[in-house]
């Protein structure tokens, strides 16, 4: 099982992921897709990455606005799995041309 990260570890990892913020026991990021269909395509690619990692985000879709929330529910907080998937979401969002993606 993945180990919970402490506050210092979480802060250090967040510093490596601009655009992600902490909200209690989860990290969140909101992005703007170039179109509704591009956003849905990104969600599909994130779903594939999540399945491969066996770690699934909460995703909110509001037209072109996508919000991703990550937490390791089985551990009751944030683990390395959350930050690895966040990095994958950033990479995929960049490929999809989302505003705010690096």
3D architecture notes:
The chain is an alpha+beta fold and 102 residues long. It has a domain at 28-96: Transcriptional coactivator/pterin dehydratase (Gyrase A, domain 2, 2-Layer Sandwich), CATH 3.30.1360.20. The protein has helices at 7-15, 36-53, 80-96, and strands spanning 21-23, 26-32, 58-62, 65-70. A four-stranded antiparallel beta sheet has the order 1-2-4-3, covered by helices on one side. Strand 3 and strand 4 (65-70) form a beta hairpin. Helix 2 runs antiparallel to helix 3 (80-96). It starts with 6 loop residues before the first helix and ends in a 6-residue tail after the last helix. The mean pLDDT is 96. It comes from Actinomadura parmotrematis. It catalyses: (4aS,6R)-4a-hydroxy-L-erythro-5,6,7,8-tetrahydrobiopterin = (6R)-L-erythro-6,7-dihydrobiopterin + H2O. Pfam families: Pterin_4a. This is Putative pterin-4-alpha-carbinolamine dehydratase.
Concise summary:
By secondary structure, this protein is an alpha+beta fold. Helix content is 43%, strand content 21%. The model has no long low-confidence stretch (mean pLDDT 96).
The CATH class assignment of the domain at 28-96 is Alpha Beta
Q: Please tally the β strands and state the result.
A: 4
Low-pLDDT segments, ≥5 res: none
Oligomer: single chain
Helicity level: 40-55%
**Distance N to C terminus:** 30 Å
Structural class: alpha+beta
Helix/strand order, N-terminal first: HEEHEEH
From the 3D coordinates, which CATH architecture of the domain at 28-96 would you assign? 2-Layer Sandwich
Sheet bearing the most strands, described? 4 strands, antiparallel
| Named CATH topology of the domain at 28-96 | Gyrase A, domain 2
State which percent range the strand residues make up.
Answer: 15-25%
Counted by DSSP, the helix tally is 3
- Rg, alpha carbons: 13 Å
Silhouette: globular
Physical arrangement of strands within the biggest beta sheet? 1-2-4-3
Mean pLDDT: 96
Considering the protein shown, what is the CATH homologous superfamily of the domain at 28-96? Transcriptional coactivator/pterin dehydratase
